[in-house]
Design goal:
heterodimer, A: Rossmann fold, elongated, B: mainly alpha, MetI-like fold, two-stranded antiparallel ribbon, 12 helices, 2 strands
Chain lengths: 362, 286
């Protein structure tokens, strides 16, 4: 891969005693859609603010195109940000909002107007150009905010939970708008969100943060199927987590003895060795639920507790031996055929390849 | 459910005191003053009449208009100075100070109002007099003495004593309410730190600033103490003119003319200012 667009090297940000970002090392590549995800206070917004120069790192280095950016002032950067609150200027019209950045750069009035109108047109809100932004709807304001940043023709766009104020339908629509824009423009998007569905739907790569640390970096599929540690496994949800002691390894599989029985799990790249405390996860949709004992390497008995109907897919919650909770995701149609009611005893089974071992000590 | 009648009584109960107050202590006296302005004074006694002689005497005289324009000018000047001097302090309190420091500062700015304005004005004598503190200090570096009392300078110092704390408080509260994200958004789009003041902070603070300036103007325009004691009433402002007119020959009707002219001016300025302050931004309908 070519030289990364942005590099974080051992970056730390402290606010008095509070460490918002700890020893962060991360590359952001040109043209990628990177999502930074985590719950509130995990440091994701601070990371974005450091990229925009609104916060200065306490330690470490941030480089953009190789240039050290730690002390470069926000107005000297080319890192427009789409704010969670949108932060449109309420005393200006939609067009004047879009023109603001160009005006600061000293672009002539005619040129400014033309470029602003072009972008408003591209965002399909050109008919509202001369309206005050306060009179626009949520979705329209969103588009003005995007146009205001993109009219600067940046090589990287920063987005701080821009869709969090919109209703569900509009979120899906704006996700489409954003991914299409990112593909068309070919620029880097750094998108901060607490929403897994937004991050997974749009991003090429997802960074999961927890209490100032990076918990995992990977493609949405990697993170979903092979969470690196317990935090990620629990954060992305719908994972069954088992804990036990390792036994022998054979043929790429490691035996793990748990309170629910002995199971085979995929041996990770750096094997933990025998007699170690480990955890492994199995995605809820990779579990099979049957009425009779299946012929499988990994199987467990469980009792059905409840169902959660989402649509064509249901999540079934079950309880196994030693109080182990199970989650199984399956087609609603398939579950209906089994005709189960709460309290029914069933069997669960899964492939050893789908049992993903977590980093030891997590 | 309860009819509109019941709601009317409830609303009226709360409105009645202020309506009565306004009728008895504002509308009534104003009407009376308007009436007086048409009375005539004969042998030092005011008699009821309906003559335009007072209006004619006052509004055709040079000394009235001299005083009128001077008052308008010096009150506007002092309001402008108050707003400019207050701004750096208010800016620092709004954007640099902690919430706690800001609360203390606003509290401390209210303290001057605990003492009588007259007392505060007299204390300037000690400082501004020919042999006062300020001239003594200037004397050390070989300057002065300057005549600071009984001058325009004195009048403006007096006005500022009255209005400056208020200007700082109103500006601080206004700017503290500015959404800091908007300032960061402007910086993010290439706006230099200093430019955010007039690009973002002032447009967002327009209403509060106009109201603050209006207060400074109103207080100075109607003030009697500063021009009388510190300005030496050399060039009489309208309040001093009122006093002189009533003293010389019991000319209450002519004083009423001056007072009415002052009120008309204040109403005009206030309405214009409020209309400006609450003008809707471009592109907003209805």
């Amino acid at each position: 891969m070519t030289e990364p667009l942005v590099t974080f090297r051992n970056v730390e940000k402290r606010f008095d005693d509070f460490v918002a970002v700890r020893d962060m090392t991360l590359d952001i590549h040109e043209g990628e859609f990177l999502a930074i995800m985590g719950s509130s206070g995990c440091g994701k917004t601070t990371t974005l603010r450091m990229l925009a120069g609104l916060d200065t790192p306490s330690a470490g280095e941030i480089r953009i195109e190789g240039r050290l950016m730690n002390d470069v002032k926000p107005h000297e950067r080319d890192t427009p940000l789409v704010w969670q609150s949108l932060a449109l200027f309420p005393f200006l019209t939609a067009r004047e909002n879009v023109e603001f950045g160009l005006k600061m750069r000293g672009v002539a009035a005619d040129e400014r107007k033309k470029r602003a109108l072009d972008w408003l047109d591209r965002m399909q809100i050109v008919e509202f150009a001369d309206r005050n932004v306060a009179t626009l709807s949520g979705g329209q304001k969103q588009r003005v905010a995007l146009a205001r940043s993109l009219v600067m023709e940046p090589q990287m766009l920063l987005l701080d939970e821009p869709l969090s104020a919109l209703d569900a339908n509009l979120v899906i629509r704006m996700q489409g708008v954003l991914t299409r824009l990112q593909k068309e423009l070919g620029i880097t998007f750094v998108y901060v969100t607490h929403s897994q569905s937004e991050a997974f739907a749009m991003a090429d790569r997802v960074v999961i943060m927890s209490q100032g640390d990076i918990a995992q970096v990977g493609s949405p599929k990697d993170i979903y199927r092979t969470p690196a540690n317990r935090f990620v496994a629990e954060f992305v949800g719908r994972n069954n987590i088992f804990t036990g002691k390792t036994g022998g390894s054979d043929n790429g599989k490691t035996k793990v003895s748990t309170l629910q029985g002995a199971f085979l799990a995929q041996t990770p790249d750096n094997p933990p060795g025998p007699e170690k405390q480990v955890s492994f996860t199995v995605s809820a949709d990779l579990m099979t639920l049957t009425l009779t004992e299946p012929d499988a390497d990994n199987k467990a008995k469980a009792t059905l507790i409840s169902e959660e109907f989402i649509g064509s897919v249901v999540t079934v919650f079950l309880e196994g031996q030693a109080g182990q909770e199970y989650k199984v995701q399956m087609q609603e149609r398939a579950l209906a055929e089994l005709d189960l009611s709460p309290g029914a005893d069933v069997w669960l089974s899964w492939e050893a390849e789908n049992a993903n071992m977590l980093e030891t000590g997590s | 459910m309860s009819g509109p009648r019941k709601i009317d009584i409830y609303a009226l109960t709360w409105r009645l005191p202020i309506i009565l107050w306004q009728l008895v202590f504002f509308i009534g006296p104003v009407l009376f003053m308007v009436a007086i302005s048409f009375f005539v004074v004969k042998n030092y006694r005011m008699t009821e009449a309906f003559e335009f002689v007072n209006w004619q005497r006052m509004l055709t005289r040079g000394f009235f208009w001299d005083s009128y324009w001077y008052t308008l000018f010096i009150a506007s000047l002092s309001a402008t100075i108050a707003m400019l001097v207050a701004f750096p302090a208010a800016w620092a309190l709004a954007f640099r100070a902690s919430d706690n420091l800001r609360r203390w500062a606003v509290f401390l700015l209210i303290i001057p109002f605990f003492t009588s304005y007259l007392v505060r004005t007299f204390s300037w004598y000690v400082i501004l007099a020919e042999s006062g503190v300020l001239n003594a200090m200037l004397g050390y570096i070989g300057l002065g003495p300057f005549r600071m009392l009984n001058s325009h300078f004195g009048t403006i110092i007096g006005y500022l004593t009255l209005t400056l704390p208020l200007a700082v408080i109103l500006q601080t509260v206004t700017m503290a309410n500015v959404d800091k994200t908007l300032i960061e958004a402007a910086r993010n789009l290439g706006c230099k730190p200093f430019a955010t003041i007039w690009r973002i902070v002032l447009p967002l603070s327009k209403t509060g600033f106009i109201v603050a300036a209006l207060f400074c103007f109103i207080l100075a325009f109607g003030d009697f103490v500063a021009p009388f004691y510190l300005g030496g009433s050399q060039e009489p402002t309208l309040p001093i003119l009122i006093l002189d007119t009533t003293k010389s020959g019991q000319q209450w009707p002519r004083a009423a003319v001056v007072a009415i002219m002052m009120m008309v001016t204040l109403f005009t300025v206030a309405f214009t200012a409020i209309a400006l302050a609450y003008r809707k931004p471009k592109g907003s309908k209805g």
